[in-house]
Design goal:
Blueprint lengths: L2 E7 L10 E7 L6 E5 L3 H17 L9 E4 L2 H12 L1 H10 L21 H14 L3 H16 L5 H13 L9 E8 L5 E4 L7 H8 L6 E3 L2 E5 L16 E5 L16 H10 L3 E5 L3 H7 L9 H23 L1
Parallel strand pairs: 3-4, 3-9, 4-5, 9-10
Antiparallel strand pairs: 1-2, 5-6, 5-8, 7-8
Helix pairs in contact: 1-2, 1-3, 1-10, 2-3, 2-7, 6-7, 9-10
C-alpha cells in the first residue's frame, strides 16, 4: 500500500515566493530498515549520539538505515550521525564538554528562546489542556507562537541559524532518505522536510527544534516537529524493521487517547507488519540527564551513559537489524 509524505517548502527562493507542496511517495518494501531519533533537548541529543556510537563500537552500525527520521533534537542528531558518523559525533561532544555552561543561553535553546524552561512548559501545558484533539492543539500552539513572534528581535533568527549550522558537519542533505517533521504555525498542519523539498537542511533542523517562537523559512512559520507526534515513528510505516530511540522514554504530555505516545505509534507499525524495537534511557542515562534536558552541562554525561547503554544493547539488536 503506498504511503505518501507531504514535504512543504514555503517561500524558500524569496520572501515573495509562493508556497509549494511536493509529494514523496514511498512504497511498502522499498526500504527494509528505518532509524527513528526522537526529541529530548540538549541531553537527549547527546544520548542519541552516544547510543548510536556505542552500538557502532560494538559492531552494529545503525546509520546504514534506508530511512532516518529525526524530530527536534533528533533532527540535529540525524544530521550529525549521517554527516560525520557515530565516532566523530561522539568525540565532538566529549571534546567540547568544557565549553558548556551549567545553564543554556538563549542561543542554545530551540528557536532562541530566552525564558525559563519551566515557564515554557507551563504555558504549553495550558494549551494542551484546553485543546480538544491534536489538530486543535497544533493550531493553538501555532497561534500562541505567532503572537510571541510579533515584534521579536530578528537577530535571534540569525543567531539560532548560526548555532544550528555550527552543530552539523555538513550543510547538505545526506544522500539517504532523511525526514525531518515540523508543524506549520499558521495552519497547525504537520509538514515533513526532506532533500527534495527545496528547504535547506539547517532550516529544516531549526524548524523542527523551534518549540516556542516559530522558525522563519521565507514567508513560512514553523514549529517543533514534536507537536506532530512525539517521535514520529509512524512515518516509517511500510518498513520491515524500525528501530526507535526515544530520549523521553516514550512519555507524552498529551492525553493518551490522542495516541501521540510512542506505544501507540509502535502498535500502528506492528499492525502494518513492521518489526519494531525501542531503546529508552536506562537508569544511568536518566541520572545523567538531570532535571533539565536543556542544560548543556549534561551533554557529556548523557553521551557517555548512552554509549555504555548502546554497547550493552548491540548483541541483542544485531539479529533484529541485520
Amino acid at each position: 500500500m503506498p504511503i505518501s509524505v507531504y514535504v512543504k517548502a514555503d517561500g524558500v527562493a524569496s520572501e515573495n515566493a509562493s508556497p509549494s507542496v511536493s509529494m514523496l511517495p514511498r512504497v511498502r518494501g522499498m526500504g527494509e530498515r528505518a532509524l527513528v531519533l526522537g526529541g529530548g533537548g540538549s541531553a537527549g541529543n547527546a544520548w542519541l549520539i552516544g547510543v548510536v556510537a556505542g552500538l557502532f563500537d560494538a559492531g552494529l552500525d545503525v546509520t546504514d538505515a534506508d530511512l532516518v527520521i529525526g524530530t527536534s533534537a533528533g533532527s540535529t542528531a540525524a544530521a550529525q550521525l549521517t554527516g560525520a558518523g557515530p565516532t566523530r559525533s561522539l568525540v565532538d561532544i566529549l571534546s567540547a564538554a568544557h565549553q558548556h555552561r551549567s545553564r543554556p543561553t538563549a542561543a542554545e535553546q530551540p528557536g532562541g528562546r530566552s525564558g525559563p524552561v519551566a515557564d515554557h512548559l507551563e504555558r504549553t501545558g495550558r494549551i494542551i489542556a484546553s485543546a480538544s484533539d491534536p489538530a486543535d492543539m497544533r493550531r493553538r500552539m501555532g497561534a500562541a507562537a505567532l503572537e510571541l513572534d510579533e515584534g521579536s528581535d530578528e537577530s535571534r533568527l540569525t543567531q539560532w541559524r548560526a548555532t544550528v549550522a555550527s552543530r552539523v558537519p555538513s550543510q547538505h542533505w545526506p544522500d539517504r532518505l532523511l525526514l525531518i517533521p515540523a508543524v506549520d504555525a499558521r495552519t497547525g498542519e504537520p509538514v515533513v522536510f526532506d532533500r527534495h523539498g527545496g528547504v535547506e537542511l539547517v532550516d529544516a533542523i531549526a524548524a523542527s527544534t523551534s518549540s516556542a517562537l516559530p522558525w522563519h523559512i521565507g514567508t513560512g512559520r514553523y514549529l517543533d516537529g514534536g507537536y506532530r507526534r512525539n517521535e514520529n515513528a509512524d512515518l516509517a510505516a511500510g518498513y520491515e524493521r524500525v528501530l526507535v530511540l526515544s530520549p523521553l522514554g516514550g512519555r507524552t504530555r498529551h492525553p493518551l487517547e490522542w495516541g501521540m505516545q510512542l506505544a501507540a505509534q509502535v502498535d500502528e507499525l506492528r499492525a502494518g507488519g513492521s518489526r519494531v524495537e525501542t531503546v529508552l534511557p536506562d537508569s544511568t542515562s536518566l541520572e545523567a540527564f538531570g532535571t533539565n534536558l536543556m542544560d548543556g552541562s549534561t551533554r557529556a554525561p548523557a553521551a557517555r551513559a548512552g554509549h555504555e547503554q548502546g554497547s550493552d544493547l548491540a548483541a541483542r539488536l544485531a539479529d533484529f537489524w541485520r
